[in-house]
From TrEMBL:
Classification via Pfam families: HD
Organism of origin: Haloplanus rallus
SMART domains per UniProt: HDc (SM00471)
Record's protein name: HD domain-containing protein
Residues of the HD domain: 50-155
Length: 231
């Protein structure tokens, strides 16, 4: 279980200030790029989308942390800052850069214990880890699981359909695209370890499967296939 650090509790007012800082930072990251911002070649890779993803991860990771007994303050603050550098740093560097920004913010906007700051920045730094989740702290695992789960389910389906429009695909490709969301969801269900995250993953998979089945019934000759016999 995570170490509870009662003296490091983050108030609602402090967390609201952090959210505003992250939102403003993402907007500035895009405005400061001459080419419109790194990763802007897909419409949803904007400051607005990235902040919405961040809030989704905050909610998911906090729910998992609460059910798994992790330090909720560490998890929700790490989730809030985990992608703050996503629009200005290269993919392989964004976690380290995000940890740096979070450390600077926490050092200058409150009297947070060093142990709290270290846990938060460690989770941010490790949130892109691709190995077994048993290798990381409980708080980092909650963050990684929340980050994974936001990409599946109804939200992941909508993003994939938006990608179809950007790539000038027709509705006949929808089956293939939704199958990708299903596969991503199955990968997520296999990777997460906590009971809380597994439950969320399977719930979201059901939603995508239902949508895929309805789509197949209404569009004859749909590309792709629906693996109804798979969990």
């Amino acid at each position: 279980m995570g170490v509870e650090i009662k003296e490091s509790a983050v108030s609602d007012e402090e967390f609201a200030e952090m959210k505003q800082f992250v939102s403003d930072y993402l907007v500035a990251s895009v405005e400061n790029e001459r080419d419109g911002g790194r990763m802007r070649w897909y419409p949803w890779h904007s400051a607005e989308y990235r902040f919405n993803h961040t809030l989704n991860v905050v909610d998911l990771a906090t729910e998992i942390a609460d059910r798994e007994g992790a330090d909720i303050d560490v998890v929700r603050v790490a989730a809030l800052f985990h992608d703050i550098a996503k629009l200005e740093a290269e993919q392989e560097r964004h976690a380290d850069e995000g940890a740096r920004v979070a450390r600077e913010y926490l050092a200058t906007h409150g009297d947070y214990p060093q142990s709290f700051v270290d846990q938060v920045t460690q989770s941010i730094r490790e949130h892109s880890y691709q190995g077994p989740l048993s290798d990381v702290s409980l708080e980092t695992r909650c963050l990684i699981e929340g980050d994974i789960l936001d990409k599946v389910g109804a939200n992941g389906t909508v993003l994939m359909l938006l990608r179809m429009g950007y790539e000038s695909r027709t509705h006949m490709d929808a089956g293939e695209m939704i199958d990708r969301v299903l596969e991503r969801g199955r990968d997520a269900a296999r990777r997460v370890e906590s009971d809380a995250a597994e439950g969320i993953a399977h719930q979201r998979l059901k939603r995508v499967k239902w949508f895929r089945e309805w789509l197949g019934e209404e569009i004859p000759g749909l590309e792709g296939r629906s693996d109804d016999d798979e969990s």
